[in-house]
Amino acid sequence: MTDYVPSADLQARVIARRGQLHAFSHMAPQRTALVVVDMQNAFVKKGAGHAWVPAAAATCGAINRLAEALRHKGGTVVWILNTFTEESLHSWSHFHENLSSPAGLKLRSETMSAGHDGHALYADLQPQAGDWHVPKTRYSAFIQGASDLHERLQKEGIDTVLIAGTATNVCCESTARDAMMLNYKTVMVSDACSAFTPQEHAASLDSFLLNFGDVQTTEEVMTLLRASQH
């Protein structure tokens, strides 16, 4: 994925709207969760599933660095697992019946089922004991019925969410938007996300930066974490 740099025009619009480019100039690590979306073989490893994102594997280093930095400061790391269930055939029938071909549905249902290689986290990632592994059954991990992520974060007093993973403009953006709507301070980490094309990646981040929250690089987020007193 090419480096994301918002255009001068977009930056001017963001600053006119909120008074500064970045919405969040400090971070409380113990109230922060890194939510890593769908970095599973079906999306990251070629041939392992229905929706390979070629750029996804290259984000593993940034994700691992950010996860380790947040753990060191007492924050929470969450690995979101896109998961197919038979129940979702009924409760999300429009998606399965009208937005998926029969062949696509068959491949997705097989490779995204728990226990399948496509469902597993990609091997280059470095989850640690104490991290959370949360299955979700919709694009967004926060939409009602998709997972218990919101309830768990609330119980831990989390008020800030960092979004990484794939695809930027699909499950990452869906999760990030809903996090903001649930009153989390939300940051999409540009170089820790990936999309099918650079254009889709940039368009998603542009929209999020202007309307929903903040977009920062891994290094920018880590600078805030290092500067924190807690």
What does this structure look like?
- The chain is 40% helix and 17% strand.
- The chain is of the alpha/beta class and 230 residues long.
- The protein has one domain: Rossmann fold, CATH 3.40.50.
- Helix 9 (198-211) links the parallel strand 5 and strand 6 (214-216).
- Helix 1 (8-18) packs parallel to helix 9, helix 3 runs parallel beside helix 10 and helix 8 runs parallel beside helix 9 (198-211).
Helical residue percent band:
40-55%
Which structural class matches the secondary elements?
Answer: alpha/beta
Distance between the termini: 33 Å
Q: Which architecture name does CATH use?
A: 3-Layer(aba) Sandwich
State which percent range the strand residues make up. 15-25%
Determine the mean pLDDT. Answer: 93
* Number of beta-strand segments: 6
Strand and helix order: HEHHEHHHEHEHEHEH
Stated plainly, the CATH topology is called: Rossmann fold
> What count of structural domains?
1
Cα gyration radius (Å): 17 Å
Uncertain segments of ≥5 residues (pLDDT<50)? none
The coarse overall form would be globular
Number of helices: 10
Determine and state the CATH class.
Alpha Beta
CATH superfamily: Isochorismatase-like
Task: Output the strand order for the largest sheet.
Answer: 3-2-1-4-5-6
Give a nutshell description of this structure.
The chain has helices spanning 8-18, 41-44, 60-72, 88-91, 93-98, 102-111, 149-155, 168-181, 198-211, 218-227; strands at residues 32-37, 76-82, 132-136, 160-166, 185-194, 214-216. It is α/β, with parallel strands linked by helices. The protein has one domain: 3-Layer(aba) Sandwich (Rossmann fold), CATH 3.40.50.
